[in-house]
Design brief:
Elements (H helix, E strand, L loop, with lengths): L13 E4 L2 H10 L5 E5 L3 E6 L2 E7 L3 H5 L2 E5 L3 H10 L9 E2 L5 E6 L5 E6 L5
Parallel strand pairs: 1-4, 5-8
Antiparallel strand pairs: 2-3, 3-4, 6-7, 7-8
Length: 123
């Protein structure tokens, strides 16, 4: 028997998208998201492991180009390797930044910036 369901507050990014089908295709084929939690004509929820991203439909490109999310934790070295192998365009190098975080960046097709980071030497 499993224990009680954990009741906690979580922060879930809600990013703009110019085309939800294109967003879904990119995040699933290039970034390895495997679960479509919710899909409507104007809203999309995708999940990969412990990451859940929400997307809303907009026709304003500047909203996408000025939006970002920071995804922090272990496993980013493996993610960077995986994304490189999948041929993700607009993938930065993995490096230690001046603020002492090991990071890499990905821009999705509409301009949203995904920043992946961890404390250097982390798992």
């Amino acid at each position: 028997m499993s224990g009680p369901i954990e009741d906690r507050v979580e922060a879930l990014p809600v990013l703009p998208s110019l085309d939800l089908q294109e967003t879904q295709a990119f995040y699933c084929s290039k970034l390895g998201f495997t679960a479509t939690v919710y899909e409507a004509h104007d809203y999309l929820i995708l999940r990969r492991d412990g990451i859940e991203l929400h997307f809303w439909l907009t026709d304003n490109r500047s909203l996408c180009e000025n939006t970002s999310v920071y995804l922090r934790g272990g496993g980013i070295v493996d993610l960077h390797r995986e994304f490189s192998a999948r041929g993700v365009e607009r993938l930065s190098e993995l490096s230690i930044r001046p603020w002492n975080m090991e990071e890499f960046y990905v821009h999705d097709p509409h301009g949203n910036l995904l920043r992946f980071g961890r404390v250097p030497g982390g798992a």
